[in-house]
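For this section, I looked closely at the sequence of one protein beside the tokens encoding its backbone, which the following lines show:
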Amino acid sequence: MRALHTGILLGAGGLLLLAILAAGIFAASYDIAADSPHAGLTTALIGYTREHSIAARARDIHVPNLNDPKMLREGAEHYDAMCTGCHLAPGMAENEMRPGMNPKPPILWQYTGDPARQFWIIKHGIKMTGMPAWGTTHTDEEIWNMVALLQKLPHLTPAQYRALVASSGSHHEHDMDMSH
């Protein structure tokens, strides 16, 4: 009986050592450069993980009425100031930054996404993509304003988008309390 326990412990220890060795080899050989695409399997695994993680966390988010024109204007103000560098806006051409990003951020005016998922992504960000967690500096109300804009963005012409941004005023700076 004692030999069986010893064999099981040695086998488990060997498997653990093998897993650590494999992780070390992967970490030492993986190309982390942004200008080098992931391997197909890595891309698929990351995509699967991202989609299922967001879906699970956004499932219970209650979406408010997003049709308030004030929300749309304030969302346009924030989007224009904070999002267009990565996600562009109607009428914007590719810029110098986006080609060097991996993964490349989606062009948000080209499709309408699920508002609960958009809220969760804006609030919490996505690791290793450059998508920041805006919930650390913005209220839920401000984030819902951005979601309201994202819901209308695919239906706006470049002129309508520019007029909406012009009607919103200028982007205000947020007071950053770094004491906590």
In short: The radius of gyration is 22 Å. Residues 2-29 form the longest helix (28 residues).
